[in-house]
Amino acid sequence: MTGYLAFEIRRTLRDARFLLFAVALPVGLYLLMADRFDDMGLPASYVMGSVAAFGAVKTALDVGARTAVERGAGWQRQLRLTPLSGVGYLLAKASVAMVVALPPVAGVALVAALVSGVRLSAGGWALAVLGVWAGTVPFALLGLLIGQFATAQNLQAYQGAVVLLLSFLGGLFIPVSTFPQTLATVAKALPSYWLAQIGHATALGQAALVLTVYALVLGAAVAARYRLDTARD
Amino acid sequence: MDIHDGAPALSVAGLRKTYGETRAVDGVDLVVGRGEVVALLGPNGAGKSTTIDMVVGLSRPDAGEIAVSGVSPREAVRRGLVGVLPQEGALLDDVTVRETVALIASLHRTPLPVEEALSRAGVADLADRRAARLSGGQKQRVRFAMALVPGPGLLVLDEPTAAMDVAARRDFWRSMHAFAETGRTVLFSTHYLEEAEAYADRVVLMHAGRVVADGPVSAVMAEVSGRTVTATVPGARAVDLGVLPGVTAAHVRDGRAELHCADSDLALRELLARYPDARDVEVGALGLEDAFLRLTETVEVVR
Q: How distant is the Cα of A233 from the closest Cα of chain B, in angstroms?
């Protein structure tokens, strides 16, 4: 499995356009939003937490969901003719999603520190970067699940809808404190909301718990779907 | 590691697979000895690919036993005992040929050197090219290199030349034979009769999910084809000739009668007894092509 993981990481890291976009999009959003949120009385560190969460969610989902293209092209079938197990393949893909999810989080934090002058303690930075990054696991798994259901043709539509829903309803673009009551309740059911909580350094225990439960449920769903896919043949 | 020295390269018994109402594979038995080059021949829909998918562990049989060098298909894949060129299957567009083959090698315990697999498959000169820039035939040869690189004792090729032009096809079979000569067993499926005839030691003819003939190419030809008796028979009508003992079908064209025979000796005796004027008699074997067409037609009539 490590051989396959190294192969996948090498592949992803030389896709410069994808990586650049993965970092540039959240960094650009951060720069746009920091001013607006400033008018609303929210500090730049708050925007940093929200947008870093967005960058991590989008990138992790993208990598996972792109497995639909490989499945459609027959690559997964080809791999089933090697000693690599299905679990090994899925773990490698989830790991790659995690590797690629780190740069957007770090990029947003870097810009927040350099441009907006955000100052945190060492522990605060560790939480803002590594904490948010670690909390991305359920999104990497959700991406794999989308990859199992989508086809190469409808992937963009699924993927776009899920990213938008998680981002808007999870309060990554608009603070949940401004949501009407019902919508706020919905937000609090979403993993993206809790990932942002880690970015905001609030309700950490609860956020960790919710994200862990999400990771376990999504991991089980991916495994179940994989078993179904191979049993059907 | 327990090497099953005595076990045949492939042993299949009572294999069945049903998709919905369709019996794709309906009781296949097959034993392939080490070093044999066997063609699995049959028209589209005969059950060749379904059989191969089960043999290499891509799908599970509804019933029956499969042993590859004495172990289960999945275990054989895991140990690199079987190399497979599946009919569907793909390359990653953004990865070079060498990287792809090296990846497959890295997943196996005792692979061939990557460069050897590349040159055996005839793609050494394409090694640095990305898959997106390969033609269909080139892709197929890369996938052949991927099948070779585990260094398998058994090579399974599902319609390997489907995407190739004539020249590419000839090169491909030359590579396949060079590999087989290193003592490997090869099982390939095809619906090209010439390929089975030219490149296999033995033909397994499948139709409607069953093996309908199995043996050396010449024997299978004789078995399924029977013989033909042609003669000039003044005044004879096809309907009368068709009911002669030993005859399965008859045509009359330009005064020449052509009799397809299950038993040509019997048919010939009856023909000469009833039509003493018959002359210019020839007895011959049907070509595999004719036999194949006839077999297919017969089964379609039965349906």
A: 5
- Encode B138-160: b = buried (16+ Cβ within 10 Å), e = exposed: bbbbbbbbbbbbbbbbbbbbbbb
b/e map A5-37, b = 16+ CB within 10 Å: bebbeeebeeeeebbeebbebbbebbbebbeeb
A13 touches chain B (CB under 8 A): no
Q: Is B303 helix (H, G, I), strand (E, B) or coil?
A: coil
pTM of the complete model: 0.81
Q: Which residues of B182-198 are buried (b: 16+ CB within 10 A; e: fewer)?
A: eebbbbbbbbebebbbe
CATH architecture of the domain with residue range B10-215:
3-Layer(aba) Sandwich (3.40)
- CB-nearest to B56 from A70, A81, A231 is A81
Question: Under CATH, what is the fold of the domain B227-285?
Answer: Alpha-Beta Plaits (3.30.70)
Residue B124 one-letter amino acid: A
Contacts of B108 in chain A (CB under 8 A): 82-83
Domain boundaries, chain B: 10-215, 227-285
For residue A17, what are its two tokens?
Answer: 């356009």
Mean pLDDT of chain A: 92
pLDDT, position B292: 66
- Say if the Cβ atoms of A83 and B59 lie within 8 Å: no
Give the tens place of pLDDT for each residue, A45-78.
999 999 999 999 999 999 988 899 888 888 988 9
Nearest CA in chain A to B17: A233
Residue B299 reports pLDDT greater than 60 = no
Shortest CA distance from B78: residue in chain A: A83
Q: Tell me the H-state helices in B156-229.
A: 166-180, 193-199, 217-225
